[in-house]
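Hey, quick one: can you model this chain's 3D structure?
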Amino acid sequence: MKRTRLSICRKKKRYNTHEDALIVAGRAEYPLRPYRCDRCFQFHLTSRTKGKRTPQFVLERLRSGKGGQTPS
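Sure thing. Here's the predicted structure for all 72 residues.
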């Protein structure tokens, strides 16, 4: 697994819990996924979802046609 660059970690917003990050991801207009940072050990959000588990609320948005992206 790739390691988060320190410069990227410093620029991103940090969330104390996975649940806090999911709440913010759920409000976004495009799919976001929380991940635990190996630098600060808190959670950040990423738009990279290839090969990763997609949160349930994103799948529901895509099915209802309210999401920013269409499934491919």
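One thing worth noting: The CA atoms of residues 1 and 38 lie 10 Å apart.
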